[in-house]
């Protein structure tokens, strides 16, 4: 359906990387629901990857069922980026994605992430070096530009296509915007129009099937990368696939299905990384499960402090009892807002 060079994707909808969230356990849980094209790991630093630092190896953890998968790298040194891409090709991933969108200070201070959009010459040369060093597809994820005065995405999209990049994801905001304001669909369209053949995946604020259809109509993008929408609704990819195949809306997941998903996600975290790590990671996501499941303040507090598998199982049982007692239609509405880094973008 979408071709990234030699890599054929079954769905035009990809899981966008969300550092700290889109780990192996989450990716496998979402894949099991169907409809997902490509998934991407958290961003990892090219140098740390070459040093095979323990933390980086954990971030790129994958398995044969976790395919197709891209590992996202960042860095400014062409030699390191080249070696990291070759290392990943040998490791067996489906594609390498270069991060040019991250707005966080730690990354842009060294010239990486979205700061790469300020340096046309060196950035294109770096990307060319990476593309020429591996046989697997190389993709780029970027923003519209640094700020409204430098909307460089169309320039880079064209230049990247010419040096052999297989596909580009564009988050329709500038770095200066952070996660605020609205996604600029005209900005994504300008990048779509700048390339001849490679797929552009639009990205940003797509939460519903209608949002996805609007994004495709307004921008002409070949596919869509979905981040936060998939955290709140892991069935999103299956719903989009169903809509494309039948023209009909698939009913939303039931609360019991959501509870089962949470249970599977937690147990996969335990299986991959052990009880301690699973509990620490789960604390971070407990909040957004509770926004949808609404189990009440006391259970929410316990989930956010989870420290053992036994406690998790007790909580699942309690929520299950709640579900038995409450009718689906009586359930309070889910809170679908999602927290993003806050405060002025300079301080992230
Ligand atoms: C908590 C968080 C972590 C993110 N981590 C990454 C990352 O590692 N690499 C990347 O390219 N983008 C990252 N992003 C940006 C998302 O991939 C995506 O571009 C952005 O959230 C807009 O899409 P959405 O509205 O579908 O979430 C992150 C965003 C959030 C909120």
Explain this structure.
The protein is α/β, with parallel strands linked by helices. The chain has two domains: 2-246, TIM Barrel, CATH 3.20.20; 255-330, Non-ribosomal Peptide Synthetase Peptidyl Carrier Protein, Chain A (Orthogonal Bundle), CATH 1.10.1200. 47% of the residues lie in helices and 13% in strands. It is built from 14 helices and ten strands. The protein has helices at residues 24-31, 46-50, 54-59, 78-91, 105-108, 120-133, 153-162, 185-194, 209-219, 228-232, 236-246, 255-293, 297-304, 309-325; strands spanning 2-4, 7-9, 13-15, 39-45, 69-74, 95-100, 138-142, 167-171, 200-203, 223-226. The strands form two sheets. An eight-stranded parallel β-sheet has the order 3-10-9-8-7-6-5-4. Strand 8, helix 8 and strand 9 form a beta-alpha-beta unit. The radius of gyration is 20 Å and the shape is globular. The model has no long low-confidence stretch (mean pLDDT 93). Flavin mononucleotide binds at residues 16-19, 42-43, 72, 99, 101-102, 141, 171, 203-206, 226-229, 340.
Salient structural properties:
TIM Barrel, binds flavin mononucleotide, alpha/beta, 14 helices, Non-ribosomal Peptide Synthetase Peptidyl Carrier Protein, Chain A, two-stranded antiparallel ribbon, globular, 348 residues, 2 domains
């Amino acid at each position: 359906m979408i071709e990234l060079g030699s890599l054929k994707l079954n769905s035009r909808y990809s899981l966008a990387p969300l550092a700290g969230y889109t780990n192996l356990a989450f990716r496998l849980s979402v894949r099991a629901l169907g409809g997902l094209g490509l998934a991407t790991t958290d961003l990892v630093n090219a140098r740390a990857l070459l040093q095979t630092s323990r933390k980086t190896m954990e971030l790129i953890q994958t398995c044969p069922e976790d395919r197709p998968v891209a590992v996202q790298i960042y860095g400014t040194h062409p030699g390191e980026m080249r070696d990291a891409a070759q290392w990943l090709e040998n490791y067996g991933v489906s594609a390498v994605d270069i991060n040019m969108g991250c707005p966080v200070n730690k990354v842009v201070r060294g010239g990486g992430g979205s700061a790469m959009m300020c340096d046309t010459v060196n950035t294109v040369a770096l990307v060319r070096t990476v593309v020429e060093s591996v046989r697997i597809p190389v993709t780029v994820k970027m923003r519209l530009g640094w700020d409204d005065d430098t909307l460089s995405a169309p320039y880079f999209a064209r230049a990247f296509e010419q040096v052999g990049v297989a596909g580009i994801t564009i988050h329709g905001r500038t770095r200066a915007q952070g996660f605020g304001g609205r996604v600029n669909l005209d900005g994504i369209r300008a990048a779509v129009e700048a390339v001849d053949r490679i797929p552009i995946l639009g990205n940003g604020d797509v939460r519903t099937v209608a949002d996805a259809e609007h994004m495709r109509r307004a921008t002409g993008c070949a596919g869509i990368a979905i981040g936060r929408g998939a955290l709140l609704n892991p069935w999103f990819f299956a719903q989009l696939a169903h809509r494309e195949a039948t023209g009909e809306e698939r009913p939303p997941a039931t609360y019991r299905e959501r509870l089962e998903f949470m249970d599977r996600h937690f147990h996969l975290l335990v299986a991959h990384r052990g009880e301690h790590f699973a509990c620490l990671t789960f604390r971070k996501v407990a909040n957004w499960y509770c926004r949808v499941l609404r189990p009440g303040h006391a259970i929410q507090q316990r989930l956010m402090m989870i420290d053992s598998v036994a406690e998790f199982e007790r909580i699942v049982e309690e929520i299950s009892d709640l579900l038995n007692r409450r009718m689906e239609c009586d359930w309070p509405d889910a809170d679908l807002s999602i927290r993003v880094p806050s405060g002025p973008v300079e301080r992230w």
